[in-house]
Amino acid sequence: MSESDTVSVLVVDDLEANRAMLSRRLERRGFSTVMAEDGPSALKLLDEREFDIVLLDIMMPGMSGMDTLRLIRSARNASELPVIMVTAINERDGIGEAIKSGANDYITKPVDIDITVARIHTQVERRRASAALRAANENLKRRVAERTLDLEHINDELRDEIKRRRDLETTLREAKRKAEAANKAKSEFLATMSHELRTPLNSIIGFSDLIRQQLKAIPDTERFTEYATYINDSGHHLLRIVNDILDLTKIDAGKTVLNESHVRVDDLFDRSIRLVDAMAAKYDVSIDFRGDCGSLEIFCDEILMRRALLNMLSNAVKFSHEGARVEARADLDAQGDLHLTIADTGVGIAQEDMQKVLEPFGQADSRLARQHEGTGLGVPLTKSLVELHGGRFEIDSEPEVGTTVTLVVPKSRIIDKAGNVSEMGVA
Asked: Which EC numbers does the record give (predicted)?
């Protein structure tokens, strides 16, 4: 701190000559001074304004310097307002008591102005440093309080977020439980209804068969024979739908058991193609089978695998244009997996509808489904049947170009020449 810095000094002395002389000498050094003639006057001035330091004479009549010091210290500590006691050399015995009472320093009379100025500067610098430290501490406390408040807000938000997530998890678990229960109830309902429907359907089909056979022996009954045929065909169609629903339900419930055996690939195709020959003739569609791997045998459930091929062959025929050709083939890929492929040049499926046809009852074009008696069960059922064998279902289609469906049978299900399933085969 330079001497040009304005420091306000309260000079307290009962002798006017002493306080006036000390004030003048300090002002010549750049200090600002105010004088008080006794303790009460000094205390009054301290209540009215701020001073940087007090020079206080110890020996004063009435209220002594020591009494005045104690009253000052009752309101302000030594770091807030430095007090330098002024004493005569022969009064130095009171300095110890003054220091104990809160004096910061002392000077002796006659006053050495250089020493006095140095001690004033020292105390004022300490006061200012202490004030800066207090301000820094207050600022730190304020910032800590603000940060604490921020953290409390963050903690509140985190607690709210944790609660919200827990509530959401609870809601999701409950929704999952309800969905699983609903799915189980749906599967049980469909299974029950499918079984309940099968019995009367079998009766309808059986008796319509009897009627049709017996009417053939009676003249002029062609019209009734035709009616019986319609009943029989409709019954078979409805039974296929019920069987599809039942099979999907059993697969969803994990209750399907594979009845596996060694089956030739060309036999699978031949028997499946024979079952759609009548439909192919109706739509004027030919089916060509190229069996480069037809002589291979696979370990599978023959009925279910034939069902998968039959579904895809039926779709290929139904959605082909009149006079078109459906190609069926069996090939091995580079990994040794068997690809059973059925390709048509029919109406095809748009990319945006591809996911839909893989879902139960999903149909790419409901108008085509109604025209060809489609239920939307064939593709998802076929996919499930292939996956039951550890394989995968692939479909590639483009509108008005056609559809290619591939049932990929894993290498582990191919029978080797010795008649054994691959070492990676089904346990």
From this structure: 2.7.13.3
**Contact indicator for 357, 405 with CB cutoff of 8 Å:** no
pTM summary value: 0.51
**Given 64, 88, 111, which residue is the final one in a domain?**
111
Spatial separation of the C-alpha atoms in residues 44 and 63, rounded to whole Å: 13
pLDDT at 374: 55
Q: Which residues of the chain have pLDDT under 50?
A: 1-4, 366, 368-370, 423-427
Closest CA to 17 of 35, 40, 41: 35
The DSSP secondary-structure symbol of 346 reads S
Q: What is the CATH number of the domain that holds 315?
A: 3.30.565.10
- E-strand ranges in 210-349 read 260-264, 286-290, 297-301, 325-332, 338-343
The Cα–Cα gap between 232 and 243 comes to 16
CB 317 within 8 A of CB 323: no
Q: How many domains does the structure of the chain reveal?
A: 2
In Å, what is the CA distance from 412 to each residue of 263, 387, 416, 427?
Answer: 14, 13, 10, 10
pLDDT, one tens digit per residue, over 55-87 is 999 989 999 999 999 999 999 998 889 999 998
Q: Considering the domain boundaries, does residue 183 fall inside one?
A: no
Name the percent of the chain in helix, strand, coil, to the closest 5: 55, 15, 25
288 near 327, Cβ under 8 Å?
yes
Residue 164 is assigned to a structural domain of this protein: no
